[in-house]
Structures are given as structure tokens and as C-alpha cells.
Design brief:
Length: 221
């Protein structure tokens, strides 16, 4: 894919794809406006804003005309991750700028498919300079990257197909996740202290399964 030639030996490579029931020209406007101060990244803004003191992440539910012409060097994550190359209607490629100790590329590529549909493929590659990432750190980054990018890809699909996120959907999703977590912790504690342990154990198992589903399957509300 475009941008693969920029990093010779990435320690991490994620490639995610999704089928969208819309032609590329209907998907592209949502890709063109990606960026923190632009249309957002269509993922979990609650998590993104945890590490951003300016609380800048917002996901647009409409096409923003002022951000439909991304240019080389334009910032997508502040002035660090910037536009490296763009082919309108086809792909947007970003690269980390001004950080010699870390290589990072990210591309969103649209492939026309049959019956006026589109295959959206996102690829992120990360290469530290002269370092080997600890396998445990790699594993955690893989899980985090999967969760955030799955949400992003599904949200782009929804918008291109004419759906948008209800205003309270993210808060409700986070609330359900916390309820499942608390239920699991309380049930695990009851399992340890109660003589009648079977029901707490069952609830704890169901809570864990719910957490896995909420985190990795991300079922719609």
C-alpha cells in the first residue's frame, strides 16, 4: 500500500478492513476530514480526550466542507501526525513528522468493489528507532489498536451508509461497560465469601463475557 516504503522494519503493523454499502465517492468525504481539529477519528472520543488536555476530539456526524481538501503537511494529530500524500477519492496517507526516534504511518485506502460498494482498508505502521518493543507492550498496543480502529471503521461505515451516532451513545456504551465491570468484581468477591457460591460465579462469568463482547465485538446499542 502507499506509505509502506517509508518504514523499512516496523515493529507493529495493523491492517483492518470493512465493507461499506456505498460507492467510494460517498465514503471519501468522511475520510478527507479525518483529524483532531477536523472531523475527528470516529472512535472513542472519551479515550482520546483522556490524553489530550485540550479536549479537542469530537466526531462529526456531517460532512464538513472546509475540511474536504487535505494538503501535504496539514496536521491530523496536532502538528505531529501530518498529511504525507493524498489522492482524492482514493487514499489519505499520514506520517509522523519531526520525531526522529519514532516512525509512524497511517493510511485510509478506498477500493471500489462490486455493486457500487467500497472496501475501506486502514493500515498503521510503527517503527521505533533502534529499539525493540517489549512483547508485553506490543500485546497491549495491539489490543488497544484493535478496539479503537474497529470503532473507527464501523463509524465511518455507518456514516457513509447514512447512519450517525446518537448523541448519548458513547456515554451509554461506557456506562454499560462499567456496570458489567462492577458486576463482575462484586460477584467475584461474593464468590469468595459466600457459602452459596454458584450464582455469584455464574454472574461473574457472564460479566466477563459481557466485557469481552462490549470491548471487542462492540455491538450497536
Amino acid at each position: 500500500m502507499p506509505g509502506d516504503e517509508l518504514l523499512s522494519d516496523p515493529a507493529l503493523t495493523w491492517t483492518h478492513g470493512i465493507a461499506i454499502q456505498a460507492p467510494p465517492e460517498q465514503v471519501w468525504p468522511w475520510i478527507a476530514q479525518i483529524g483532531d481539529d477536523r472531523g475527528g477519528f470516529y472512535s472513542y472520543t472519551f479515550i482520546e480526550n483522556l490524553i489530550d488536555p485540550e479536549d479537542r476530539y469530537r466526531n462529526a456526524n456531517e460532512i464538513l466542507g472546509e475540511f474536504q481538501n487535505p494538503q501535504f503537511g496539514e496536521g491530523l494529530i496536532m502538528d505531529y501526525l501530518t498529511v504525507h500524500a493524498v489522492e482524492p477519492g482514493k487514499y489519505l496517507l499520514a506520517e509522523l513528522a519531526g520525531v526522529p526516534e519514532l516512525g509512524w504511518t497511517w493510511i485510509w485506502h478506498l477500493y471500489p468493489a462490486a455493486d457500487e460498494t467500497t472496501r475501506l482498508v486502514g493500515r498503521m505502521r510503527i517503527q521505533p528507532a533502534g529499539e525493540v518493543i517489549n512483547p508485553a507492550i506490543t500485546y497491549v498496543m495491539d489490543l488497544g489498536g484493535f478496539v479503537m480502529e474497529r470503532r473507527m471503521m464501523q463509524s465511518i461505515k455507518d456514516r457513509a451508509e447514512g447512519r450517525s451516532d446518537p448523541v448519548a451513545s458513547e456515554a451509554l456504551e461506557i456506562g454499560l461497560w462499567i456496570v458489567a465491570l462492577v458486576a463482575g468484581l462484586v460477584s467475584a468477591a461474593l464468590f469468595l465469601v459466600l457459602e452459596s457460591w454458584r450464582i455469584p460465579l455464574l454472574i461473574a462469568i457472564l460479566a466477563v463475557l459481557s466485557l469481552l463482547a462490549f470491548t471487542f465485538l462492540q455491538p450497536p446499542i
